[in-house]
Automatic annotation (TrEMBL):
Any one Gene Ontology molecular-function term assigned to this protein's record: RIG-I binding
Species of provenance: Oreochromis aureus
Domain CRAL-TRIO: start-end pairs: 314-490
Domain PRELI/MSF1 intervals: 2-175
PANTHER family: SEC14 RELATED PROTEIN, SEC14-LIKE PROTEIN 1
GO biological process per UniProt: negative regulation of RIG-I signaling pathway
GO CC terms in record: cytosol
InterPro entries: CRAL-TRIO_dom, CRAL-TRIO_dom_sf, CRAL/TRIO_N_dom, CRAL/TRIO_N_dom_sf, GOLD_dom, GOLD_dom_sf, PRELI/MSF1_dom, SEC14/CRAL-TRIO_domain
Limits of the GOLD domain: 516-666
Protein name: SEC14 like lipid binding 1
Lineage: Eukaryota, Metazoa, Chordata, Craniata, Vertebrata
Gene assigned in the entry: SEC14L1
Pfam families assigned to the protein according to its UniProt record, in alphabetical order: CRAL_TRIO, CRAL_TRIO_N, PRELI
Length: 700
């Protein structure tokens, strides 16, 4: 497996020429890097005007490895070839490194560059990328890979320190300024000054702009940012200031996942804090975090969670009887949420409001928590990416273990765990009664192990003593109902009057409405069992329009026409039980293509993550069948180039199942204005899922 590394942009607040003077002092050897034993110049050449200097070195490296491994390999040192290209006019230094030792077994590539900061010509930027591919190493491939990654990570951390060390040495010698390069032309001297690139060509390194972003108050700030571009760069100081101290390899995972999203994700790019949470939840395993994050982004888009805080209005009953709310912050600066669960009538809330309303309430709390973390990061001047939750169980009894209530709680926990990882910094459970172990047994299996480690449980009044609440919350903001001095305006809850309860039929009807309040519907496609949708057309020249997103797997989209009415669909028994119920088939197996039905649009292959919109003007009345069929990997083998979409496909839990969410509508010819732009203006929900439309029959 190829290991890759990509550094953030590291900014030196010194001119390029001074950085170069410090850089050359690293050679031929550097005492600050013991593993860098020596180096020698193999070749050196310079352009006639002295502008470009090309230097090739052979570097000797002493890797810290077990003696036995060195004896098996038969080497004491490793040799690398370094090629430097210095352009004094453009003020750039590009470095390429590859291994000379074991080059037939191991491939090591490294690229570094020093360039002028795009917004300040007196500063210098440094970027670094590398790859390691161990094809064979005497049966010790895994060990060699671990040693190499460890050594490389330690050398990365020393890189900036070394430059800064030699800058201090230059300062001690009185060298604080080096003039820019000048070119001599004939008898005269022409002085060339560096010109900054136009704004459109500058790389967006979020040094100051990142701070401004924390002031954002609109709904789009919850977990996502404006659409990014592949040219966006992450600054190392920005990472440390707003995301925290990360190891070099953790920084690399963040940057690579962010770049992957910029290249493949359609729509808004998640904020760096949000991406980092998913990486932490998967221990910085890039493939697992990528799958985890993509599933959550699909969920957010499907349910329009980004607009929840601005579009959803809490019912008055919820405001009166839901005993929870935000209350200042803990000693670490985390936003503090207090939930008086023991005073809450969970059964009454479920019976009066339904599971979906409570789910949206919890989602709105999490969305608000994300906002408050960003605000506290700005206020306290340090990264704050999670909040503290205080749960008061005083009053908890068997009524809270009502089965439908537990069912609602389990579903809410499952959704929160899947879409808000690493957002809970600490959970303080106070005044836990004897019934609490029963509740804990029910819910703990659904809670991630890392999250469970953040739970602190206090029985009775234990929270008042040493090691209790005062260790985590300042005494002056402890709520009055916990014997503190701070008045807390969180509702006290209480019993929901039974006359507000709704019948099971009303709750079912309400929940169905909430579950389908999006105009989009979801469908699953199985291998050998396509999903088919029947549309009856009574008037020729009617227009069938569609818009669908492929949220999982790859599919083939077809449109068929038949003058015969399909028989009532029947569900067939499928041989693989894990696939569940198979889609009912409208096209009978006895039908012959070209006789009983015909294809009216060319088959369209749709990749995972793609949004497809299109329209078809019907030529005849009859029955039209929209079909989405599973696209196997064999059908995709025509292209030899690997695709990022194929990477996602390989990560799916089931390789024989695809998912789509779709919307269709039939328009009379007089209502169709001939472009997808006009359709977008008629249906605002369309533009919320796809930011691009074209006037073609089918667009992506």
């Amino acid at each position: 497996m190829v290991q890759e590394y990509q550094s953030p942009v590291r900014v030196y607040k010194h001119p390029f020429e001074l950085i170069m003077a410090a850089y050359v002092r690293r050679f031929p050897k550097c005492p600050l890097i013991p593993m860098f034993v020596d180096s020698e110049i193999i070749s050196e050449s310079q352009s006639d005007d002295g502008c470009v200097l090309l230097t090739e070195r052979r570097c000797t490296i002493d890797i810290e490895a077990p003696r036995l491994l060195k004896r098996i390999a038969g080497v004491d040192y490793l040799y690398f070839i370094q090629k430097n290209s210095l352009n004094r006019r453009d003020r750039t230094l590009h470095i390429e490194v590859h291994n000379e030792t074991f080059s037939n077994r191991v491939i090591v590539r490294e690229r570094c560059s020093y360039t002028v900061h795009p917004e300040n010509e007196s500063w210098t930027c440094f970027e670094q990328s590398a790859s390691l591919d161990i094809k064979s190493f005497f049966g010790f491939e895994s060990t060699a890979e671990k040693i190499a990654m460890k050594q490389y990570a330690s050398s990365i951390k020393k890189g900036k320190e070394i430059i800064e060390y030699y800058l201090r040495e230059l300062e001690k010698e009185g060298v604080t300024y080096i003039p820019r390069w000048t070119s001599t032309v004939d008898s005269g001297t022409v002085t060339w000054r560096h010109q900054l690139p136009p704004p459109s060509a500058a790389r967006a390194i979020p040094v100051n702009s990142a701070k401004d972003g924390l002031h954002c108050k609109d709904s789009s700030c919850s977990a996502e940012l404006v659409t990014g571009s592949p040219d966006d760069k992450l600054d190392a100081d920005y990472i440390r200031r707003y995301l925290g101290d990360l190891t070099p390899l953790q920084e690399s995972c963040l940057i690579r996942l962010r770049q992957w999203l910029q290249e493949t994700h359609k729509g808004k790019i998640p904020k760096d804090q949000h991406v980092l949470r998913f990486l932490r939840a998967r221990d910085f395993n890039l493939d697992k975090a990528r799958e985890f994050l993509c599933q959550s982004l699909t969920w957010r888009r499907q349910h329009q969670v980004d607009f929840l805080l601005d579009t959803w209005k809490r019912p008055q009953l919820l405001q009166d009887y839901y005993s929870g709310g935000w209350h200042h912050h803990d000693k670490d600066g985390r936003p503090l949420y207090i939930l008086r669960l023991g005073q809450m009538d969970t059964k009454g809330l479920v019976r009066a409001l339904g599971e979906e309303v409570l789910l949206r309430q919890v989602l709105s709390i999490n969305e608000e928590g994300l906002r408050r973390c960003e605000e506290n990061t700005r206020v306290f001047g340090r990264p704050i990416s999670s909040w503290t939750c205080l749960v008061d169980l005083d009053g908890l009894n068997m009524r809270h273990l009502w089965r439908p209530g537990i069912k609602a709680l389990l579903r809410i926990i499952e959704i929160v765990e899947a879409n808000y990882p690493e957002t809970l910094g600490r959970l303080l459970i106070l005044r836990a009664p004897r019934v609490f172990p029963v509740l804990w047994t029910l819910v703990s299996p659904l809670i991630d192990e890392n999250t469970r480690k953040k739970f602190l449980v206090y029985a009775g009044n234990d929270y008042q003593g040493p090691g209790g609440l005062v260790d985590y919350i300042d005494r002056e903001i402890i709520p009055d109902f916990l014997q503190g001095d701070c008045m807390c305006d969180i509702p006290e809850g209480g019993m929901v009057p039974k006359f507000l309860y709704r019948t099971a039929e009303e709750l079912e009807s309400e929940e169905n409405r909430l579950l389908t309040d999006s105009i989009y519907k979801s469908a699953s496609i199985y291998k050998g069992a396509p999903y088919e949708l029947l549309i009856e057309i009574t008037e020729a020249s009617s227009v069938i329009t569609w818009d669908f997103d492929v949220s999982k797997g790859d599919v083939v989209f077809n449109i068929y026409h038949s003058r015969r009415a399909p028989q009532p669909p029947r569900k067939e028994t499928h041989g693989i039980a894990s696939l569940g119920a198979v889609n009912p088939q409208l096209i009978d197996k006895s039908w012959v293509l070209g006789q009983d039905y015909s294809m009216v649009e060319k088959a369209l292959m749709c990749r995972e993550g793609e949004s497809v919109q299109g329209s078809h003007i019907t030529r005849w009345p009859g029955f039209y069948i929209l079909q989405w069929r599973f696209l196997s990997s064999a059908a995709c083998a025509a292209s030899s180039m690997p695709r990022v979409d194929d990477v996602l496909a390989s990560l799916q839990v089931s390789s024989h199942k695809c998912k789509i969410m779709y919307y269709t509508e039939v328009l009379a010819s007089c209502d169709f204005r001939g472009s997808m732009t006009s359709l977008e203006s008629c249906h605002s929900g369309f533009s919320q899922l796809s930011g691009t439309t074209t006037s073609s029959t089918i667009s992506r």
